[in-house]
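ugh ok fine here u go
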Amino acid sequence: MSLNLFKKEFPYRNFVQISIAFILTTILVRVYEYIFIASKLFVNNSFRFELAGIVYDIWTCLIIITLILIPYYLLSLLSRKVSNIFFHILNVVFLVMYMALIVVYSERNTPFDHEFFTRSAKESWLTSKQMMTSGFTLYLPFIFYISFYFIANSFLKKRLNISRLFSIVFISISIIATLFIKFANPSELSFNQNASYYLTCNKFSFWVYDSYTYFSNKGKFDAGNLSGKQLADEIDFYQANHPFEFTDKEYPLMHKSSNKDPLGSFFNLGETPPNIVILVVEGLSKDFSGDNAYATSFTPFLDSLSHKSLAWDNFLSTAPGTFAAHPAISGSLPYGKRGFSAMNIMPDHLSLIKILKSNGYHTRFMIGFNPDFDNMGGYIRLQGTDMILSHYSSKYKEMGIGSEGWSMGYPDDALFSRSFEVMDSLKQTPYLNIYHTATTHMPYLFEQKPLYDKYFDTKLKTLKVTGAMRHTLKDCKTVLVTYMFADDCLRKFFADYAKRPDYKNTIFFITGDHHIGSFPSTCSVDDYHVPLIVYSPMLKAPKKFYSVNSHNNLTPTIISLLSSNYKLPNIPNEVHWMADVMDTFAGFRNQQSMAFMSWNRDIEDYIYQDFMLSGNKLYKLTPDLQQVPVENDTMKQHITRLLNNYKLINSFVCNNNKIYPAAKLNLLDNRKLLFDFNDTAEHKIYLFSSDTIVMPQFKIPKNYKYMYVEISSNVKLLTPGLEDQPSFSMSLIEDNLKDKDFLYWSQRDITMMSKKDFQEHEWNAVSTNDMFTLDDYKDKKNMVFELAIYTQKQPLNLQYNHLHVKIYGVN
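structure:
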């Protein structure tokens, strides 16, 4: 009986007919990609790249067809109907995945890569959910292409007469295509722009290949795998190739602080140290802000302010996401594995906030949305920041809730108005105020949006731009409208500030946290291109600079400005800054030698002199911070060596707490252990309650300015979730016996608290730390600290043991 089964003829007609329908549908997706993606990108002759990409689409389909061939044949031995259904299901699954990757590409202008594996399941799910809930129109291409696939299949079944010879040739070509799978993606070296390379690639094939490369190279740049001699060599190389006077081998980044003051001569400084205000505008990009903006400027106020300021046109963030902004701006810090603030335990370090606090500055972080976004709040709190704005009265109205079900928080005008209220109630000077705005972040909803939509339409009519650029601007209208509103909020902010007595002794630093992903970039370096404006009433005269600088230069420059012009008692002689003070050369040049962290949390790009290494390809930087491909093997090898060396040094200092010695940090000297809880027992939790308290409440004494908390445990997730993975929730509560008033809380996703990759269904050692300002709660009579395991929608189902909690008081 079984022998007769294998004598059945292979159903080649059905197999080839379904395969052709599959290939035709995949090719047709290029039409959608061209209309909704390629036409808005800054790529010349994008249609040509889309046409070339059809070759790689067909190649990808042929590989998939070959992989299905044997399972299809085996199923056909039992039932041809079952084998056909199996083939259809797999094709539909592929088309859904492929279209999802195209949708992500349209949102971010960069194809999805192995980032899927470097983010937590929760992050990936929330991103997917955000897109899935963005409206019915999102699903139209899925419906259209799946329908087209079945219509094409039905048409071919009726009209196409497939011979045995044709089938043999077709299947043979598929097998040959699979044997040459290494060529199924175009060579990145063949393209002048990453954007044109991305257009040509088949997005599914790109994702698979990039993910394979990621896993193949995983651990390659883990300093823990180096011998003592190899590590010493890497440290020697790093210190020999960076322009500092290094002072330590155990702490490779430590060097003498700069005695240069590049900014002081530009100001008529007063007798008392100036207030410092850093305005971080969400997603503010040089492409649509400032002089010679590539897409014309949509920020007229900032443009006019730059003409009264010190302005750097060639300024860079260190990553294309918010996660890297504040550790770079206020700490000039390395990245760690996924961004410094994403580390479960952030290594000991200096920062602008810590240094200015120790020199009499009152420090505040002003934000209109969840401060724990990308764990900004965790990073900011650990600096000992005096005040974090988190409370808004009922007179302030939150922005609209998008279709994905959440609001970004309070608009920029509310943030600025509320900050003045805070400043009036906390009159300490000098001060460091760091702002982070919210309006210009998805979902881009604010009350005045209809009015600004009209402003945009009126402005677009007056612009003298190409048809292609006009199309791009229209396509990005939702994004650009928010910057027009944000610009007006900044206009009012400065007008109101000018009426304040502290204004005349204040220096403002304005920058973007990163190039916004929803607006296409022109090239790799443009992914990091943001403006920097330094404005003050004390400024002698405005000046424009074209030298390249980055977020990493800000803290060294501000510290140098203050220490060179005022007698500040606590200025460190040794620092770990990743960059020197800012370059004030008026012409174009790059003195930065620095790596960047990309969306996928890989460290992939590097600039050195007037070159940039990106995607294993070397480019020359132009004076307007564009890039041109060049052939220079010697320089390419040197920059590759610098990049690989940085990855290893970054791994070593972050994984081994070797950025800065704890003994040198003044803040640590004042810690006093108040509570030490150690529960070695094993607990299993399966509850539908959102909160499960895991330690006794700790009554917070009133005589401390901060409370520092360390948590460690072993955890096993028995039902790992996607949308709502459990977290450790740390809460400050006023306990009035009858009810609890949650004054402040912070949450750390358990899967992000592991130093290594979190393994589901297995025991993981997790740990984290946080610090809370207590000054805001001095009037509370019975304030307690509570630690719980928290989940929102699904039951808690986990085990934990060896829970250890230490609470310190800090003055």
